[in-house]
Inverse folding.
């Protein structure tokens, strides 16, 4: 049984929610995000809070009510505060440079990598070895960060590569004679 769905979602000031039959749209200072609903769940607005309720007592409906509640809570947080993900480049000569909607990466290959950042995500590079991604959508920030990390994952012997700022890479010991 999902206990997540029992908690109401508090709506901060400046956030508006429009409920339709099969879709929820959350509008705030940072944009608009929409989410489709399943037939197993219905969302009810109760003053300054949202409640997600399962239509029946089946395991799927109860599980989906918790999932939808978590997605809508992330949408509310995204349009009010936004989400941020930091990446760190570790390695000699590894550099990143943001230019508009593109990210230029030098990751030790014979060619530079030019990554086009999707609409809705902003990228900045405070230093040459640090990349900061911001968006109202938690899913979109995570997906873009994973795609950038996939260009050069951290290797286990020296730890070189693109890693999340909070990620700890466990280094292996080299082979002994």
């Amino acid at each position: 049984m999902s206990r997540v769905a029992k908690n109401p979602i508090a709506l901060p000031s400046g956030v508006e929610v429009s409920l339709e039959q099969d879709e929820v749209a959350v509008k705030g200072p940072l944009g608009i995000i929409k989410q489709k609903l399943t037939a197993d769940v219905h969302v009810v607005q109760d003053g300054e809070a949202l409640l997600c309720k399962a239509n029946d007592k089946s395991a799927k409906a109860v599980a989906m009510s918790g999932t939808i509640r978590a997605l809508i809570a992330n949408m509310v947080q995204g349009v009010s505060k936004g989400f941020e993900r930091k990446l760190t480049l570790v390695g000699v000569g590894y550099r990143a440079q943001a230019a508009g909607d593109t990210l230029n990466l030098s990751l030790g290959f014979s060619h530079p990598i030019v990554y086009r950042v999707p609409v809705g995500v902003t990228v900045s590079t405070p230093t040459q070895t640090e990349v900061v991604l911001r968006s109202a959508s938690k899913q979109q920030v995570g997906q873009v960060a994973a795609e950038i990390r996939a260009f050069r994952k951290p290797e286990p012997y020296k730890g070189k590569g693109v890693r999340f700022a909070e990620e700890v890479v466990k280094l292996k010991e080299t082979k002994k004679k």
In short: The chain has two domains: 4-80, 83-164. The longest strand covers residues 83-90. The domain at 4-80 is CATH 3.90.930.12 (Outer Surface Protein A; domain 3). Helices lie at 59-80, 138-150.
